[in-house]
Specification:
The complex is a heterodimer of chains A (275) and B (288). Chain A has 275 residues and is α/β, with parallel strands linked by helices. Chain A has a domain of 115 residues: 3-Layer(aba) Sandwich (Rossmann fold). Chain A is 39% helix and 25% strand. Chain A has 10 helices and 9 strands. In chain A, the strands form 2 sheets. Chain A has a 6-stranded mixed beta sheet with strand order 5-6-7-3-8-9, sandwiched between helices. Chain A has a 3-stranded antiparallel beta sheet with strand order 2-1-4. Chain B is mainly alpha-helical and 288 residues long. Chain B has 2 domains: 39 residues, no CATH class; 248 residues, no CATH class. Chain B is built from 11 helices and 1 strand; from the N terminus they run βααααααααααα. In chain B, α4 runs antiparallel to α8. In chain B, 40% of the residues are buried. Classes of the chains: A alpha/beta (275), B mainly alpha (288). At the A-B interface, α1, β1, α3, β4 and α4 of A face β1, α2 and α5 of B.
Chain lengths: 275, 288
Amino acid sequence: MRSASENRAATVEGDRLPAATGCAIRVENLSVTYRTTVEKKPTLKKTLIRLGRRERIIREINAVRDVSFEVPRGAALGVVGVNGAGKSTLLRTMAGILPPTDGRIEVFGRVSTLLSLGVGFKSELTGQENVVLGGLAAGLSREQMAEKYEEIVDFAELGDFMDMPMRTYSSGMYGRLAFSVATSMDPDILLIDEALSTGDARFKEKSFAKMRELCGETRTIVLVSHGLRSIRELCDEAIWMNEGRIAMRDDADAVIDAYKEYLQVGESEVTNEDV
Amino acid sequence: MNAIARPRAGEDFTGEYNVYEPHKVGLPPLGPYFRALWARKQFLFELARTNLRAQHYNTTFGQLWLILNPLMMAAVYFTLVYIIRDGGRGPVFLAHLMLSLFAFRLVSTAISRGAQSVVGGGKLLLNTAFPRLLLPLEAVLESFMRFLPTVAVYAVVHAILGLPIGLDLLWIVPIIALMTIFGAGAAMFAATAQVYFRDLASFLRYFTRIWLYTSPILFYAEDVPAKLQTILYVNPMYPMLGSLNDAVIEGRTPPFPLLAASLAWALGAIMVGAVFFMSREREFAIRL
């Protein structure tokens, strides 16, 4: 691990234009640790005892441990791994939402995130309000959002549902809206977390096509999915994460084969489906 | 779209080139931070507006509650004082009570909503990178938008009672501005503290109530016996509500010490609150 002063030096160095390295994302020795206060069984008695002993109940979760890799511009990188392997945390760190506990990430380009929770952060507001608010939070102006709005609605095909509170949406509708918003942001780098899994077959086809199109325009995509077929079809390379570490990095087919062997599942409908 | 124009290290939130590194507790680079904040001012207004709209979504009276709520509250406290004081308070006291109560609510609502703003920001916080200061600021703006209709309610009472209307009424603008700034500072502080100490919001309810009862709202500042004066002097509400009362009800220029104390409280609160919040905000996402 590097010391703080070395990190500072690295930042200064980063002020220089990163010569056309062809690199979109560079992750170096990244570790991320969550700190939460969780009591297994919160009871009044236990609380009193704990306060008496002046104990604290902070638990640390090492979600990502010493991970390094690079994503070239225009590449599509797949990320696989069991639940809780640190995939989403990795994406959030690349998006600048979570701070690294250690290590360093460089991102060359505008990032748009499509994280599993979607755009609908306020379920009592309508789809339209959520889309506009999400765009404004991401730094776009109202005029820019108005321009993109038609495109988003067209792609999501939600019609009148845009004027309904988002709590009335099905999870598939959530996913479609989230995907449309993220891809319409004209990103250089698109980070996608599990979003394809909720759309119906037709929308899945459509979103595949959209992502291929983005890849073709030398956009960079990082795709986290349990749908192994999406990764096989869309990604050139993949990494397999396990307990916060990179277990394997290779071309997508090799990684998926190894991952399947690890899971001890065959080439069945279940693993191929975007469950 | 290939050329990477003018890369800048540090946080730009939407920049073309970003480096993310571990941070020590400390302030982010202020220039880019406030630029990013300013660029999102529309978000602030839009969120406050939609939040206000959504709050009374399913009720019959809908937005009328923005007027009904303060009126009912004033009625409750006026009845309380009327009974306790044996009916000894006149209509001017009603004006004082309404004015002070509404102004107090401006600050206390900002703080209580502010305390929840980060912890309740869940999905937005985990899915979008933006200056987190927007969250408590939104709470303050929302509280201010709730306050505005109460000014109209008060104005009607003021006019009916024939209270003085003159240039001194204009003091209401700087005084309310100071109260809003004070509320913003306190909201930022509460929002940060709530992340680390989740019990805060529960305590806050009781604290706010005691604060209400120790501020010159249900009584006049002059009513406070000499031996209890200290309570007034340590209360930031006293100089602010005191000046407001002087300017609006009495129709005279508030005494300088009260104005100076209000200014000091407001500036102190916003400095402490903003620094505390901004030096911690990058940690919020990993602590939710």
